Amino acid sequence: MTYRPRDFWEERLREQFDLRGTGETGLSLAYNRACYTLRREVLEHALASARVTLAGARVLDVGCGTGFFTQFYLDHGAHVTGLDITSASVERLALQFPEARFVLADVSEAVADGPFDVVNAFDVLYHITDDARWQQAVTHLARAVAPGGVLLVTDMFASQPGLAVHNVMRPLERYRSLIESAGLTVTGLHPTHVLLNSELGVFRSLNRVPGLLLGIDRVLLALGFGRGPLFNKLLVARRNPR
Q1: Contact yes or no for 35/232 (Cβ under 8 A)
Q2: 151 phi and psi angles, rounded to 5 deg
Q3: Which domain holds residue 169?
Q4: For residue 143, what is the DSSP state?
Q5: pLDDT averaged per 10 residues, the chain (length 242)
Q6: What is the CA radius of gyration of the chain?
Q7: What is the number of domains present in the chain?
Q8: Which helix (H) or strand (E) covers residue 60, if one does?
Q9: How open is the CA angle 30-127-51, to the nearest 5 degrees?
Q10: Which residue, of 26, 52, 62, 236, is most buried by count of CB atoms within 10 Å of its CB?
């Protein structure tokens, strides 16, 4: 199978424009809601730790998909620009959120006019499988961060061979090199899940009770689990104020 990002995501979102389309297509909507609930809670914790104020902030939501994070930032009083590679996303979200701005673009080629106080790229960059385009995307996003602003990126930050054709994970050192070259400093790394959004093997039947998995993950994350190479994490990087 040849992976063509724009075609892949365009087809996927036109067939399933909900959290399953941007999450786990083979699992229930309830399961995906639990995953995104945990993502939101981790994001809230990371923003609080970084002392980021969202009211009035300029936010770039990269890979805005079905609008989960767009909604989050709007609910907190931010001015949001959503960017996505698919017209399925941009067209629908423009109707759903008329107070926001939406741009059809490939982040490896360009980003919307900035700068932005928050650049949010949740579960986006590891879907850029071409290495040169990935480097361009990271550089574009880092450069779009305003003085004092933050870049938010998720990945496992460790090489993981044998994943799906549309997933390529990169080590933290490669991210750090590109981010620091653009003038930002990595300030935090927050695990996003332990059991949810993970391959549970013989225990996969637990996916039918996502509320239980959500509760367990909240406890495990609070205890410091999820920092190993098999788990997704949220990286926070900040540009120093001028």
Answers
A1: no
A2: -110, 130
A3: 5-24+53-192+227-239
A4: H
A5: 91 96 96 98 98 98 98 98 98 98 96 93 96 97 98 95 87 98 98 95 96 98 96 97 82
A6: 17
A7: 1
A8: strand 58-62
A9: 70
A10: 62
